[in-house]
């Protein structure tokens, strides 16, 4: 792969970032005037939040209004030096693509979308579908792809500390190096890396679709809910990690207690509570006498619940 043209920019601070997102009902809308790549990729309104985490109230509201996002594009514009590379980000991968290909796609104003006539909404639904197909073609055409890194692990390689004078170009340089390394890896190795990192975002999305609310309390505010693995992530293989039946959608208190083995659930949905939790703590965790059971369990949940009961519940006693 050729060296990124952006490496030629050493001290030029006149660049601007453009970021757009293609969503289910709105085509290629600008999402934010980001000042640097750290924000555009991992910021509160960045690609990671839109495609992977989406736990904030602002992101949740955007998803409710515009539908599920499919792609985020990030490129540098308004430069004296021409740069022909851009980042196109899906839920699980980052691709290096042509900036011109992304910049040519017409952006859409979204002001007042809730109050648009149905005919306008139907038009933009069709347009969004068409643009999604175009972006899919651009994405798949790229031979330079790497897995989408999580911000608290591999993602640090992109953003470094950025507390000092780290140049934004260094982030894309790191991406370039990773893409070159990916080129030299075997297809089997690349597939293994992808499968190991897709994980949490897709899993959370599946649990929201399956449960739609906390499996115990009935809380329906998705941004407050956690995607809890029944058989812990570390103990699961890649298939189990993405199995919707290996998960419960829980409020934060229940999620913490479940993860620590302070509570568990029998195959009939009944909650078992460790003696280590006091009556006062039950209240603070949101565990009430009339809301302690899970409804909606299926036979596919059984093996995971049995694992949790045997190996996680009150693990300090075993």
UniProtKB/TrEMBL annotation:
Domain HNH nuclease as annotated: residue spans: 214-266
This protein's name: HNH endonuclease
Pfam families assigned to the protein according to its UniProt record, in alphabetical order: HNH_2 (PF13391)
UniProt KW keywords: Endonuclease, Hydrolase, Nuclease
GO molecular function, one term: endonuclease activity
InterPro entries: HNH_nuc
